[in-house]
Design brief:
alpha+beta, ten-stranded mixed β-sheet, two-stranded antiparallel ribbon, 15 helices, 14 strands, 19% strand
Length: 429
């Protein structure tokens, strides 16, 4: 079977929703990332067999956003586009599908990644308003319109946030923050531990930004309509973040006795990421040295009420398929949906009891060494553009593997709805 490798990987800056990228739609974020990817790898668009992108909040004007991006970036019309949606892991799922296409021999070169504009997720009206608007549209006479106006009630015009509703699980009825609160209680994660973790995420992200490490993976976004303004840096890491400031924040999801706050949760951001996946044989034929091999991956399901434990379910299986132990992994990226969730995964992976009771394994997976985990900060500081995050983790991991000289890397994240995804990458020496 052909071996899938990564030939290039880029991402846009991650910017808090409502700020510098608020006017840039998801399709344009992805178009600029993919354009820079193809130009940076010097790959002829005609050589691409498929484009696969992850996206969670499907835009009405680009329902198959991968196809739209492919055509607008200059891929031939014959190159099909596929948009995938696995909630938070959509961007990673796109890369894994690309790897499967290459392994199966159905494609030699695939553009993969993810994109999300959280700023442009719309508000919507209650479904009950539909009947009134239909009645208004059918009213042809003045009398009919007056009658329709008489039936209008303020509650029909009360907008609802699609973001808030989308982050509430329809099966267990919990929003994502309350699932993190549940894990904090189950694994004994204190408020102080969560705040300390969040502070370190900001410290590491600020240090990476100051040292120029993110510049190796970020491509600038030119903001329309005249593309005169350029966004080049992440907007999220706080240099002045402090223990005192974090301690002042009130719990968001369980106000009376909760521990999860806006400060120890991920930021809501806009952004995109793209990677070029090809067969190792194709890369050799082009005389290209790949960044890494896609060694193994896994996706697992679990209770939606404990969705934050997704990495603790997916990582052991991905490691088994790669034939390695957690101690062999030089760099690890786990999405920081919530500090409580990451710490819970740390404790679950190190627990023999969790391994036997939850996974049916004979022993614990092992300890997540924080000196190797999210060494440049994570989503608490950088943000979480849902459909793009999985791909962003891969881009950051690849850059760090090359910079550090480590051989193996692992990226993983929890998934709304109760899933976990993980991938093992092997740097090509």
């Amino acid at each position: 079977m052909p071996t899938p490798v990564v030939l290039g990987a880029v991402r846009t800056p991650l910017v808090r929703a409502g700020e510098d990228l608020r006017e840039v739609p998801a399709k344009e974020l992805a178009r600029q990332a993919v354009r820079e990817l193809l130009e940076g790898t010097d790959v002829d668009p005609a050589a691409v067999d498929e484009i696969v992108l992850g996206n969670a909040a499907t835009p009405a004007d680009a329902p198959n956003i991968a196809r739209v991006v492919g055509l607008t970036v200059g891929l031939p019309e014959s190159v099909p586009g596929l948009t995938v949606h696995r909630n938070c892991a959509a961007g990673l799922e796109a890369i894994l599908l690309a790897a499967q296409m290459v392994s199966a021999g159905s494609a030699r070169v695939v553009v993969a990644g993810g994109t999300e504009s959280m700023s442009r997720i719309p508000m919507h009206l209650p479904v009950e308003a539909n009947a009134w608007f239909l009645r208004w549209a059918k009213a042809k006479t003045i009398g009919a319109k007056i009658s329709a106006l008489g039936a209008l009630r303020p509650k029909l015009l009360a907008p609802r946030s699609a973001i808030i509703e989308g982050l509430t699980d329809p099966v267990c009825g919990l929003n994502m923050g309350r699932t993190a609160e549940r894990l904090a209680r189950e694994f004994g994660v204190s408020r102080e531990e969560q705040d300390a973790y969040a502070l370190e995420s900001h410290r590491r992200a600020c240090a990476a930004r100051e040292a120029g490490r993110f510049a190796e993976e970020i491509v600038p976004v030119h903001v329309g309509p005249r593309y005169a303004r350029v966004v080049e840096h992440d907007v999220g890491p706080r240099e002045n973040q402090s223990t005192e400031a974090l301690a002042k924040l009130r719990p968001v999801f369980e106000r009376r006795d909760g521990t999860v706050t806006a400060g120890n949760s991920c930021q809501i951001t806009d952004g995109a990421a793209a990677v070029l996946v090809a067969s190792e044989e194709t890369a050799a034929g082009w005389g290209r040295r790949p960044m890494a091999r896609i060694r193994a991956f896994a996706t697992r399901g679990l209770s939606p009420a404990r969705m934050g434990l997704g990495p603790a379910y997916a990582i052991p299986e991905a490691l088994d398929r790669a034939g390695v132990e957690i101690a062999d992994i030089g760099r690890i990226e786990i999405n920081e949906a919530f500090a409580a969730q990451v710490i819970a995964c740390e404790r679950a992976l190190a627990s023999d009891r969790f391994a036997t009771d939850e996974l049916g394994r004979s022993r614990a997976t092992g300890v997540l060494d924080r000196e190797r985990l999210n060494v440049n900060g994570g989503a608490i500081a950088l943000g979480h553009p849902i459909g793009a995050t999985g791909a962003r983790l891969v881009v950051t991991l690849l850059a760090e593997l090359i910079r550090s000289g480590e051989g193996l890397g692992l990226a993983s994240l929890c998934v709304g709805g109760g899933q976990g995804s993980a991938v093992v990458l092997e740097r090509i020496r």
